[in-house]
Amino acid sequence: MSQVSQQNIKDLSRAEKLLLVGDIWDELSNEPAALELTEAQKTELLKRYREYQENPAEGDSWEVVKQRLLAD
Hints:
The protein is mostly helical. It has helices at residues 6-11, 14-28, 39-54, 62-70. It is flat.
């Protein structure tokens, strides 16, 4: 998709929207300094990481989640 408009986005399926978000994120991540986290975001990430460390078997892998989302 060369031109993206609000209408283009509305016409996409959920899976296509998620892929678009991923593409946008990948592009933004080429400039790490532009992605600075707020203190609240850092706190939340640390909390989630600690929860993961306490029970790493809980939850699904990204691949499983991605397949479930793309199946919609």
